Amino acid sequence: MKPTQTHPFDKKLFQDNVKRHLNVTYATTVESASPHVWYLAMAKAMAEMTMLNLLETEQDERVIKAKSVNYLSLEFLIGRLTGNNLISLGLYDEINDAMQELGHSLTDLLEEERDPSLGNGGLGRLAACFMDSCAAMEYPTVGYGLHYEYGLFKQSFKDCQQKEAPDAWQGIEGYPWEVARPELKQDIGFYGHVDVEYIDGEERRTWVPGMKVQAMPWDLPIVGYENNTVYPLRLWEARAIAPFSLESFNNGNYFEAQHALIDADNITKVLYPNDNHEKGKTLRLMQQYFHSAASMGDILRRHKAAGFSLDELPDYETIQLNDTHPTIAIPELMRILMDEQAMPWDQAWGICSRTFAYTNHTLLPEALESWDESLIQRLLPRHMEIIYEINRRFLLEVSAKWPGDVSKQQKLSVIQEGFHRMVRMANLCVVGAYAVNGVAALHSDLVKRHLFPDFHELYPDRLTNVTNGITPRRWLKFCNPDLSNLISEKIGDEWPAHLEQLEKIADYADDSEFQEQFMAVKKANKQRLADWVQEHMGIELNPDAIFDVQIKRLHEYKRQHLNMLYMLSLYHRLKTDDSFDMHPRVFFFGAKAAPGYYLAKEIIYAINKIAETVNADPQINDKLKVVFIPDYRVSIAEIVIPAADVSEQISTAGKEASGTGNMKLALNGALTVGTMDGANVEIREEVGDDNIYIFGLDVDGVDELRANGYNPYDCYQADPLLKASLDLLAGETFTPGEPGKLRATYESLLNGGDPYLVLADFASYVQAQEAIDHDYRDIQVWAKKAILNTALMGKFSSDRSIRDYVNRIWKLKPVKR
Ligand SMILES: *Cc1c(COP(=O)(O)O)cnc(C)c1O
To answer: Which family, according to the similarity comment (predicted)?
Structure first.
């Protein structure tokens, strides 16, 4: 038992609580309860313990009076909470023991939890890691998100094609880790018009919404690592305001009255499944405003309850916008200050412009949000007026800086002129925020040089970098217990809160006994994954093969099709060249494609088809296996990452803002094969050139190639191996009797112009892969590199990212409890 705990663990009491929940909460008995209900009752008993700490943290006078960060994000990809919270509470062994006595295996029970997949990928997972780090270091934090009824769709494969099914993540019994906070509910308006009146000669504008929706908060506890701090992740659920329409209800027209309920319910019904792609749908903007308005209201409620004045808002609250999705919070705060608090513009703007900070996550044009002016006008008429006024004043600044330069005004304007006028949310963020950051050194540099060069000239201190990170609690201590124990034996057990200490295991990189232990752990993790694949997919794997892993959303810029082409080249060689030798390799993929992304789905189909043929080909003799794990999510990542030898981070240079999968894999001793993109650049700086396989064009090389006119056919004609590999897709090798069924990728790479330069990087990629094949054959050489990867990942703890945010942007102090 940890001395720091304010509520010491009492095994008997805990067991009684579990049994009480079996009876009272889940209406079952010790004798008849299913394993799933045992998990629910156990989680509920644990959640109770953390809720006490949440309320105590929330009511701690020192926390109330301290400056806090409010992390606004439309996505929090938190993953399962039970196992991770056991680690943070320091009660893994105690509760293992308590459940054992009740006749249940803790590991089995933990497998009963469904992932809350309230995010798409990296951006949502980053938000979850940041919450974990804020709680671990006790920087006062509230996370604000949405309580989607359905998270990211569940993926399955039917005849090798992706199928999507709704993800009812709460289950019919409800999710045990959340609690409703009805006393904090709010009403949120939409549509309507703006009223104008004159009071003492002063114009006062008031929004009169045409529709109101109730925002109900659900709190999930974010448990600090081995401390007593628990912060809320507050997720807003949309509900109809009852009585929805009393008149039609009383008329006996019950079903008409339910219309309002149906509309309001829709707002948080489902997470939009697009990663790095925005589509400008009305309901999505409604989600964004609903989230921003409810969060803004709650922040101001807390600020007021603490006894502070509105002028002090920037001193006690900072609001971090995770991408532009919550941008509408900026005009919302202006509206509240001016229309509800009667503040003049300058005073309101003085507060607003010192409160918000914005994180940019992408340079991809299709991912940059811009909304139809007419849509905002209709949905949020008062906010549109405020946006015009923000822009009018901003453009005066622009013309003062660059007198007479109309093109500068056009470029920087929040409003994009044209037939359909659009509101550029990123521009609004840069104008309204006191700090703007990219998520890796290279990305932030490109934000300054390519995305916002003129903003950077106008506001030279505004743009900065905070390199992303991952929480070492979930991504090493929890998911890889054997490696964690091995590390702790050598360097003590403080490293999960001080990841830079891992550097001390570099001393053992040449120690052959440690190398053996390290590789034995890797082997056991590979066996665990192989068992999982055998059980769930019926594919038998050799744990001595190289486990080569590419797990991330499916996107052309991430170039799963480059990896696929390399697999095809190996297949071609194995089939046609008797002298060709290679170390056995298993290619693992995990990736969901957005349901409307045609080519991404075709790439999944092709990889699955290739897998079918290759895995069944006796001539391949198990040299090559392809495993596409369905429904990639956090809990799958937790099994795959500890088992990986090779980490595929092969995006076109300049396209991946940071990546965080790259960090998780390297931390668990996988070697990266990657381009000079995102955080790969910084991983290379940390581990050194000998311990990473860098290939392909860098950002300058990409620019140069495009400037000179890129023709993918040149690569195709010049490289026989590439040609042979690509041609396999055009034929019927993998679709016997149906030639051309895998042509979509082939077409995109040749006639489609190969927009992500797959063919340009192919030869260099093959070379890097051959170096991997060569190095892996000497297991001591490989072990040393793998150990050094784990040892040198200290920088990529999200604790470091949060310290950077605190020092460069948020200016907070921890409150140690
Ligand atoms: C870490 C993570 C991601 C992000 O992976 P990248 O390789 O950085 O794109 C996406 N999804 C899940 C489930 C993750 O855990």
So the answer is: Belongs to the glycogen phosphorylase family.
